[in-house]
Design a protein that fits this description.
Layout (H helix, E strand, L loop, with lengths): L1 E5 L10 H10 L4 E7 L3 H13 L3 E6 L12 H14 L3 E10 L7 H18 L3 E6 L2 H12 L5 E3 L6 H9 L3 E4 L9 H8 L6 E3 L21 H12 L3 H16 L2
Parallel strand pairs: 1-2, 2-3, 3-4, 4-5, 5-6, 6-7, 7-8
Helix pairs in contact: 3-4, 4-5, 8-9
Bound molecules: zinc ion (2 copies).
The site of one zinc ion has 4 residues, from loops.
Length: about 260
């Protein structure tokens, strides 16, 4: 089992990351993709200790749309920051998370679009997959991926919270789609309906921890061990065994991030 998107370098784990990793390994996890915000000095500093403690961890680096505002008028600066981070980290396997968030709108939308587009172009240039964060921005996300990616970039729509139409567009772009604890929530019907439309060979699972703890841990600090709850629910949605879903999502992870 793999957690394809976790924020283990987040300040939320500073005091007990060793115990969190021990529980993940005990739960049967064989790997995880640790997401680093390239503009966060604390995260870039902490990831080394995490990788030392859990050698099968791999990383991804990008400038999150929430932080894009710092690069207003200067998207190249975000790109160079991410490029340096990728070159400094032998475990880096993707560019991200990057994208657009029109739900929180923590940065002006035109700046979000510029910073996202520049990082999509970077992924194309360096030949790495993308980890996409998109919220209430379906049309612009797809348009930028088409324009800046030119059909040459693959990746994953992480923590999918859209509907069936966006899932369809993600598949058409050649992307994978990753589901989080949202699939376990009582109000997750739309997300479960979208998950049911994704073929088994394009599915990934994640915790997006420390947020979005799955049922029955909802409201607590999330952690990679609990990706098991996501796999169980996704297996039920697809009418397959937990073992089949665990194997399929692990294989997809390796194909996408470690070809
Ligand atoms: Zn995200
Ligand atoms: Zn995330």
């Amino acid at each position: 089992m793999i957690d394809s998107h976790c924020h283990l370098a987040d300040a939320a784990y500073v005091s007990d990351v060793d115990a969190v990793i021990t529980r993940a390994i005990a739960a049967g996890l064989t790997g995880a993709l640790c997401v680093i915000d390239a503009s966060d000095g604390g995260e870039t500093q902490r990831v080394g200790a995490i990788a030392a403690r859990w050698p099968s961890v791999r990383t991804t680096a990008g400038v999150h749309p929430h932080r894009a505002g710092a690069y207003s008028g200067a998207p190249r600066e975000a790109v160079e920051l991410v490029r340096r981070r990728l070159m400094a980290d032998s475990l880096a396997r993707a560019v991200g998370e990057v994208g657009l968030d029109y739900h929180y709108d923590l940065a002006p939308r035109d700046t979000q679009r510029a910073v996202f587009g520049a990082q999509v172009a970077l992924a194309r240039e360096v030949g790495l997959p993308l980890v996409i964060h998109t919220r209430e921005a379906d049309d612009d996300t797809v348009a930028i991926l088409e324009e800046a990616g030119q059909g040459q970039v693959r990746g994953v729509f992480h923590c999918f919270s859209g509907g069936v139409p966006l899932a369809r567009r993600a598949l058409d772009l050649g992307f994978h789609v990753s589901f989080s604890g949202i699939v376990t929530f009582p109000k997750g019907e739309d997300v479960r309906a979208a998950a049911a439309t994704i073929p088994l060979d394009r599915l990934l699972v994640e915790t997006d921890c420390p947020y979005l703890a799955p049922v029955p841990h909802r409201g607590k600090r999330n952690e990679p061990a609990w990706v098991v709850r996501v796999i169980e629910r996704l297996a039920a949605v697809h009418g397959v065994s937990t073992a089949v879903m665990a194997a399929a999502t692990a294989e997809n992870y390796h194909n996408l991030f470690m070809p």
